[in-house]
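Aggregate trends can hide what the representation actually does to any particular protein. This step matters because it turns folding into a mapping between discrete strings. For completeness, the protein is quoted in full, as a sequence line and a line of structure tokens:
=====
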Amino acid sequence: MPTLSSQISEIELKIKTLISENNRLKAQMGDKDQRIYELEKANNALINSFKESEDRNVALKTANAMLGSDEYKTKTKLKINSLIREIDQCIAQLA
């Protein structure tokens, strides 16, 4: 049967091991938190870039339709008709 002092030594050793493991895990968690922050920042930048690209794409499609491209003739006609109706409404309100 181990003596009381040897049992205390074993407990102290286990506590020191647990403390060092706890410190290691805290450091590892801090590194992971930093990595998550960086990835979220990069993700937000990519989302913003994607939204800007979508907006540019819509603007280019609209410009292409306004220029009367064959692909967008129907859209162009509808847009022109819509603009004419808006102008007519403005004229009616002025009169």
In short: Helices lie at 4-66, 73-94. DSSP finds two helices and no strands in the chain.
